[in-house]
Amino acid sequence: MPTSASSSTPEPPANVVAMPMPNETATGPQFADPKNFINRELSWIEFNRRVLEEAQDPTQPLLERVKFLGIVSSNLDEFFEIRVAGIKQQIASETSDVGPDGMSPTETFVAIQRVVHQMVTQQYALWNKEIEPLLEQNNIHLHHVGDLNAKRAAWARRYFQQEVFPMLTPLAVDASHPFPQLLNKSHNLLVRARAKRGGEPMHAIVQVPRAVSRLIHIPRGDKADESWNYIYLASLIKQHVADLFPGLILDGVHAFRVTRNSDLYVNEEEAENLLRSIEQELRRSSRGNAVRLEVEADCPNDFSNLLLEFFQLTEADLYKLDGPLSMTHLAPLVANDAFAKLKDRVFQPARDPALPPHADIFEAMRKQDTLLHHPYESYDPVVELVESAATDPLVLALKITLYRTSGDSPIVEALIHAANEGKQVTALVELRARFDEAANIQWARRLEEAGAHVVYGVVGLKTHCKALLIVRRDPDRLRQYVHLGTGNYHPRTARIYTDFSLFTTTPALTEEVAIVFNTLTGLAGYPGLKKLLVAPFDLQPRLIRLIERERDLAAAGQPGRIVAKLNSLVDHEIIEKLYEASCAGVKIDLIIRGICCLRPKIPGLSENIRVISIVGRFLEHSRIYYFGNAGKPDLYLASADWMPRNFFRRVEIAFPIESPPLRDEIINEMLPRFLTDYGKARELQPDGSYVRLQPEEGAPRSQAQMQFREHSRRQAKKLAEKQREGKTRLLPIQHPPQERA
Fold it and tell me: 85, 15, 24: which is closest to 43 by C-alpha?
């Protein structure tokens, strides 16, 4: 068994609380007691802390550490835009509602600001004390414009005049010029000027243009120079901002960044045209109420106080940053192929031998069910399935759910082609996929123009499931081909998110998928299904029954076993049922990447529950539900986390894996690899903190993602060898024995 942190374990974070004691009465534990729940927002912050730990890890390649710093900033942006914005609205409305953890909105807000300020301080200390010096050691230099030598300063001056100055517009702020409506996450400069020395101060805003990279590469002037030199766009504008104010004396220029409430508010029942309503709301949301102000560390208090007043924020909302105003601006360094030695080794997904290149994918699907594990196995077969269906004359209809997809989506292009070819195409496009609304609106319009039936989901629900149904007139009969996934139809994220894809023609599944589509697009109610678990109709109650079955088996003296791999565990009813199962003796392992509101390892409550989180090179996104059933297990893959929004406000599908080889692969190989990860796994403690797992002395620091990558490389190598021999099938790869789930 793994051991927890060694003596070098850092101090627990500021958001943890004393370990609660079991809450018992004469009738037994009180599962719903607020002490038994971790605050949702503070649990999310702990997840972002684990991302920051990846940036702090000196064994990571340098630019991977930079990448994780950017992810920390990007995560915080979204957290403030949505979660903190919502909490501030609750406080403003003086709501008295509390969550299952018993914390009020005000208490939650105070705790968030305390812990996030601590996290941001650590993030920028890491940048200044470790990451930036290491970049310099590797000939990557990020300069302040004022520190450039004469030759580089002259180049920067020319670049400013030719590429930047024409795009700048100074905006006065005075009695006749109100403070401008600055866009969400926009980068700006606050300028203070005077007409003469001792004169009245005047203020203006200069917006940093979004069309120019925030990190500018200075070309080499000497071929022998192997260094890479960059300047920040804001620093360049600050250095030459006087050009915008001729005749004035400047006595202060400071950069700042504002984050706004970006949640969309659309009353679907009153919106006659949902697409147009969301377009209008998108334009409004970029100018929502401010929720956070970020300024440079040297920004004087009178400047920051003026900005706080402008944005109607308080000191708690102010973040002074000793470095770039957003670490996401460092993305050009991570994307530069010249720095390959400072990044992870490039990974090429393997091709599953059951779906070889150039094979007839419909014939392959008729032979057997196939399960792909992305990104270790290529996403190409998913794209090829849609492209083949678009051009195959035997295909009559395609139905698909689209939650997120890439801006250059080959899948949507194939759907457009299919519609142009006269095939019946139905696309359930979710217009409210957060931060992808504009892209989905564009795709919806193009699909409609091609003649596809575009459905904007169900009133009050987000269509989050991942399903594709193809109807084909085969020589023997009309047949339905189905793809079900845990991840979006997004070929780009399929290279960095871990997900599953199931290809099947099994009638028991394909017929139920057809019923789900008909339920979503038609007028009939949900009839209830045997194989699929579908939210918002029956996913949560059927999961509860599965948990209760394990509880009852354990209470009767039989083995009870639950393993769940999720992004988040929030739903208090499910958590209470897991506590019940634990008290009955069910052994429960939870692999929760992000938010977990359950407190494990509390005697008399959750002593049989273990929670780990894996944060690594790839984003753990797949959802797996495993229920032991005394040796006759039920295994599901799903699009849904165990959260109220997934159970009640989204359309989700959990689908069973019943093919014995596929079940064995997940149960006997994949789940044990996750559960024995001693490299990237952290274990949740009862107080809400996480401790990195350590293997037993002498045992290897195994990493699940690394093992899956190496398996993929071996598979790709064997496939290449077989293809050279003129064969396209592989023998099964032998794996070392693993602990069973």
Answer: 15
